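Cross-posted from the bioinformatics board.
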Amino acid sequence: MNTIHKIIGTWALPLLVVSGVLLAGCQNGQQIGSSDDAASKVYVAPGEHDEFYGFFSGGYNGQLGIYGLPSGRHLFTVPVFSQAPVNGYGYSEETKAMLNTSHGFVPWGDAHHPELSQTNGETDGRWIFINENNTPRVARIGLDDFKTQEIIEIPNSAGNHASPFVTPNTEYISAATRFSIPMDDKDMQNMDVPIDSYKENFRGTLSFIKVSDKGKMNIDFQILMPGFDYDLSHAGKGPSDGWSFFTSYNSEEANTLLEINASKNDKDFIAAVNWKKAAEYVKQGKGTMMPGEHVRNYIDHEEGGIAKSETIEEVRVLDPRKLDGLVYFLPTPKSPHGVDVDPSGKYIVAGGKLSTVIPVHSFAKMKKAIENEEFEGEVMGVPVLNYDSILYGEVENPGLGPLHTEFDGKGNAYTTAFISSEIVKWDIEKTEVVDRINTYYSPGHLMIPGGDSQKPDGKYLVALNKITKDRYLPTGPEMFHSAQLIDISGEKMKLLLDFPTEGEPHYAQGIAAEKVIENQKRFYKLEDNGHPDAITSEKQARVERDGNEVHIYMTAIRSHFTPDNIEGVKVGDEVYFHITNLEQDWDVPHGFAIKGANNAELLIMPGETLSFKWEPQKEGVFPFYCTDFCSALHQEMQGYVRVSPKGSDVEIAYGTGQ
Amino acid sequence: MSKKNRLWMALASLMLILVYFFPLWGISMEAPQYPEGIGMNITVNDITGKEPHDLGNINGLNHYIGMKAITPDSIPELKIMPYIFAFLIATGLMIALWGSRKWIVVWLGLFVLLAIAGLVDFYIWGYDYGHNLNPNAPIKVPGMTYQPPLIGSKQLLNINATSLPHIGFYVALISMGIASMVWWKEGKTDDGGKSEKTMNNNTRKAA
């Protein structure tokens, strides 16, 4: 208990000091740190567009929030790992399978890190990937229609946190286990063992997901690792291309009260993985195919738009004890969180969250130390490099609790300091702090569009804060998280805008709008609709009974459904509405809902077919209607289904306008 | 007719080939909900949307006021027009070859008459679409009809419709202009075109 008091005492004092400064600031003036011309810099006139797309993870809402920058306007939310009643994602027959896992249907996820696809080290606007921490998964979202197109589960993993960071040409995406779990040495299966056998039985894995030219993901290999917690990751670039870096904490291998027991070691590790070498080993057939059941779900509008699930039973595992040159440990103070590679690819920056400095490792020195075998030990076949041999420099006085760093492409790095609630700007070559600015409050990640790529757009920075408190009108005990937009175009950082963000954004990514706009779909072409239950004209509308299944092939167009009067449905039937939106115009969705349905509405985009399952429990006449205000006669867009008792002889009958 | 004028006459005929590649007439519509506009083009053999799905969307909107759907297949004129232009091209070329000035007048006269007939026909179709409305239409505004303007702009409820000639029509006008010029220039030579068959070189010198 003494240790606990010591730790709390150590951090409580700076927290109090900082809060004091902030409160004083509030009393003195309304615009804390905000520059006078801030309003004009973030003002996007009515009808004008933002300069950047911002993709903000939704955290525990399992979604991806889309914001315009610099205005901070919330443009859209893409459902990814969570069912979304707003449009039926995860409820409709077409999208349900997207949430399948080896644990069955999982309706919720914890989404942390969005990551844009890259070409030649630059964001390219094709896809954005995002990880799920709880039931380890990675999703791919198409930036042509802003829909989740694929989700792959990560086997032999628990807490997929160091994910999904891309290599410079999106060859691979990283996925590392945050929580180590017991793994049988023979088949890597989770084991029923005492939890305090951690040191003996628990292992970690670093997974590399291969991405095809069309975006298809598959797990190419996993590297078996000591039982630490693997936290974050970034791929090398330029000279360090071919390597990936993963932070780890809990090198103490504690299994209880980690806040104390995993904070003991002076240094933990960054794992440097030579993924090009690993890929060569894989090509040579090295490593072992191990059981690793995982599910891959994908949806493709050109293939009918119905999600398909496949279960993959095995995964290739590389063991550093058997394969040389795969992984090296870079000792790094002190429970490092973020690991970030600067745009030149020469420096590896760690956010040692309990450290009083920001350590900067040199990739060139690391290579040299490997060559000269300047090792100070070995853990589970992984050589530990000598700290002094690899260190480029340490940034002094970087604020308290440094977490994450991004770059402006002009030689500067920006690091969030969680405890002192600030962003610190520092010169990479000189490893010297040059500016600092307060944030409100306690930033986790920060984001500069392209800030983790080789070509950052060093104009704006967004601080993604973990504490909101008094920043907006109060909404009771629970509130959105707060973000601040900071101008980094000049020497001094300037606070421009405060805006609330949905869920709990962890990381965000930004991209110049023009890279995304050109590929935008406005609607799905009816002639390309390959859905097996699609109908392309009202003449094809029909109702068919097959045992106790009733299939209603329905169309929606302003402002009616065909058919809109349906009889012959009976209690106990499984009724499927297959609804095709016949519109071929931008922004004319139709919705569908029926009284008492036990799922969500459907929101059907023009040219799309979605299916709605309904199991009527009672006899009577049940209205259905369009939920999206589609037209002047939207209120008239309704219909009825007559439900007769089980065994009734009411025949199937249907029509519109008779 | 001089060789030069024969070439001009041949050009007047051949340029009508462009009519097969560019619309003759266009109707553009603006409404608050259509910031980028919506519209249709009338070509020599079809009515198409300015954007791929515009015609379908125009028909979708028109059903509220009870206007018949615009279906190009139901308009016989669109089947005849390609032959009319083919006829004008062929006969124009024959006149250029033959070199007869007086046939230019006949050709021109026919061309102008056909153009006027086309515009009258267009007006009649517009009148029919705009006036013969389904009595069960959801939107009925007393006294309101929806005939698009023959040429110019007109506000029809929330839609401002603008009807204007398109490239094909201007091509036809230029073709007429060139043919008229040939006829007029040939008129200035003193032999009145009587000896054009044998006197080409001399005529050119005289001209």
